[in-house]
Specification:
mainly alpha, DNA-binding, 75% helix, Tetracycline Repressor, domain 2
DNA sequence: GTCTATACCTGGATAGAC
DNA sequence: GTCTATCCAGGTATAGAC
């Protein structure tokens, strides 16, 4: 609950998602935060400690978010999930999974474990939502719910990536298409 | 058409797709190729020169490949396009676009330009294929062809990324879903 | 065209003062 | 908890011999 610690995590999260894990340095955080890099090492001795903290932080926020949606209709929950990726888009940031997955093999074992757990949890939640929604006649699709969840998660993740390259309306187009489940 | 030059490009391509652009070094290529890093600088003075060459090489291969498909039925062309991503999957490599797009903003201007051109060309070709196929009654979808192309390209790209993290059958599942257009 | 040698820099990390 | 100072490794890049 330390304020500085939280700030470091927040800045590192932005840097990972805008530049990538290997392309940012403690100096980048120092500049923004107005402290020396030694201060950052005090909180996170190694860069991978910081990486793990960023992933854990994202995982926590995700759990809190879906818990806050629990009472909402399935359709609304789904809309929230799809559009929550848009916030990151405005700043041209990709999501954490999109930023870290390409270099997965180069990450520390701890980062790999936490990232996999996060990915699993997202898919499990989304699969459940789609299944429940279909049972209630809200969603309409023929494939297995898990397959649908994979496709949706993939499309959203990659739409943010392609958006950086194409610099057009990819994200919006894909979102609109997905929303008509 | 220099053999060493071609080899360097091939190795760099693998390294970018397995580790990422910022996580590989000239030393990695030296090791595989059995030469010193100075030799690589002879062909590619700067790392971004090498990066551009890798992108151009991929763009060329893509153009050659789709040209070789020109006489095939739309359906077959589409199947080839979807399954061509699978080759890269076997080695746990992602596609070049998936590897480079997250760190797009950190790349040299030349790399950015070439990468955007490649992305544009893929979307243009895929959009045309989908449109022509639908006109002939082979494909069935209701959204705009370009939207469909965005979704398909996104799903394929991200399926390789998620595959690295989830280490399961994401790629296969998504491919099967996409193939039923 | 490839080598040795080396310059230069950045980045991650630590020791010890305050 | 933050600082200064510093170390070390690795990475990009170049000069000049062969």
């Amino acid at each position: 609950m330390n304020a500085t610690r939280e700030e470091i995590i927040r800045i590192a999260d932005e840097l990972i998602r805008s530049k990538g894990y290997h392309a940012f340095s403690y100096a980048d955080i120092s500049k923004v935060l107005g402290v020396k890099n030694a201060a950052i090492h005090y909180y996170f001795p190694s860069k991978s400690d910081l990486g793990v903290a960023v992933i854990d932080n994202t995982a926590e926020k995700f759990q809190q978010t879906i818990r806050s949606w629990e009472q909402l209709p399935y359709e609304t929950q789904f809309q929230h999930f799809v559009t929550m990726h848009q916030k990151t888009k405005k700043n041209e940031w990709v999501c954490l999974m999109g930023a870290l997955s390409p270099t997965y093999d180069t990450l520390s074992e701890n980062m790999q474990l936490q990232l996999k757990e996060l990915a699993d949890n997202i898919i499990i939640w989304l699969t459940g939502l789609l299944e429940n929604g279909r049972a209630k006649g809200i969603f309409h699709f023929t494939e297995e719910a898990k397959a649908k969840a994979y496709c949706i998660q993939s499309s959203l993740l990659a739409s943010l990536l392609l958006n950086k390259v194409l610099k057009n309306d990819v994200y919006q187009v894909i979102q609109n298409t997905i929303l008509t489940v």
